[in-house]
UniProtKB/TrEMBL annotation:
InterPro entries named among the record's database cross-references: MenG (IPR032904), SAM-dependent_MTases_sf (IPR029063), UbiE/COQ5_MeTrFase (IPR004033)
Enzyme class: transferase
Membrane listed as a keyword: no
Gene this protein is translated from: MENG
Gene Ontology BP terms: methylation; phylloquinone biosynthetic process
Catalysed conversion reaction: demethylphylloquinol + S-adenosyl-L-methionine = phylloquinol + S-adenosyl-L-homocysteine + H(+)
Official protein name in the record: 2-phytyl-1,4-beta-naphthoquinone methyltransferase, chloroplastic
Protein source organism: Aegilops tauschii subsp. strangulata (Goatgrass)
Length: 260
């Protein structure tokens, strides 16, 4: 189990009710879905250990660039005002908050999100539902979302084809999935630079927070990940009509855009 976040702006009246009809678990209208990070297995426990310093470590290590990469991921999802969107593997919610601003608040505010005590709190964030769920068994009906984002999550799920099939299932026809992650580069130079940066910058800094092993996992997870070309194939084999992987950050990161 892990973390999901759905930004679901609702218009007053019947749409609001139908907005819940799609939930497999049929939550009561106005129910508060509270995000709780499950520590069901070691990988979830790893992210729970990182959570307290997650944003700060990333700001320092990427010189704030991770926020740019996340904005690009959300932009390429084509989420727009009034859409119903999902941020899968949402973690501390960076992409969910960006999506929330994209889709905005239309009409009645239906949900109270788990609040993140942050002076940047915006009214639209009330359209977010924080849900504990499994990317491999999403608690939503078919064709439920106008866009899905996954930020640094697909690399961490144990069954990537199943995750892509679930994303496809919950997307409306013609909608997009935007998947941001580290890039498993085919370039020897880029792969060597990335490996050097993780060994000599990322892990030493993470060690100062007592997170040596956690960030050593990062390197092994990238080595076991898929290249951009393999991610495109993963998406089309799952049933997406088109898929394109774009390199970011000089090839250190990558974003897959797949259209249903
Ligand atoms: C937000 C980022 C990574 C999230 C993340 C994902 C994982 O799967 C992990 C697994 C285990 C431990 C930690 C993570 C994890 O943090 C990307 C930005 C943060 C990176 C750690 C920074 C990487 C820096 C580049 C290698 C070099 C950047 C050079 C230049 C400043 C662009
Ligand atoms: C590196 S964090 C990414 C957080 C956030 N998306 C970001 O961009 O910073 C990976 C997240 O994936 C979640 N995760 C891993 N496997 C999952 C699964 N099967 N279902 C749902 N979430 C999962 C973890 O709980 C963690 O919050």
């Amino acid at each position: 189990m892990g973390t999901l976040a759905a930004a679901i702006p609702v218009t007053a009246g019947p749409t609001a009710a139908s907005g819940h009809a799609g939930d497999r678990r049929r939550r009561r209208r106005g129910s508060v879905a509270v995000r709780c990070s499950s520590a069901a297995d070691e990988r979830q426990a790893l992210f729970s250990r990182i959570a307290p310093v997650y944003d700060h470590v990333h700001d320092v290590l990427s010189l704030g660039q991770h926020r740019t990469w996340k904005r690009i991921c959300v932009s390429w999802s084509m989420a727009k005002r009034g859409d119903r969107v999902l941020d899968l593997c949402c973690g501390s919610g960076d992409l969910a908050f960006l999506l929330s601003q994209k889709v905005g608040l239309d009409g009645e505010q239906l949900q109270t999100a788990a609040s993140r005590q942050d002076q940047r709190w915006k009214a639209c964030y009330k359209n977010i539902k924080w849900i504990e769920g499994d990317a491999l068994d999403l608690p939503f009906t078919d064709h439920y979302f106008d866009a899905v984002t996954v930020g640094y999550g697909l690399r961490n799920v144990v069954d990537k084809p199943k995750a892509m099939q679930e994303i496809l299932r919950v997307l409306k026809p013609g909608s997009r999935a935007s998947v941001l992650d580290f890039n498993k580069s085919s370039s020897f130079f880029t792969a060597s630079l990335q490996s050097w940066a993780i060994d000599n910058v990322v892990v030493p800094l993470a060690s100062s927070y007592g997170l040596t092993e956690e960030y050593k996992y990062l390197k092994s997870s990238i080595s076991q990940y898929l290249t951009g070309e393999e991610l495109e194939k993963l998406a089309t084999e799952a049933g997406f009509s088109s898929a394109k992987h774009y390199e970011l950050g000089g090839g250190l990161m990558g974003n897959l855009v797949a259209t249903r």
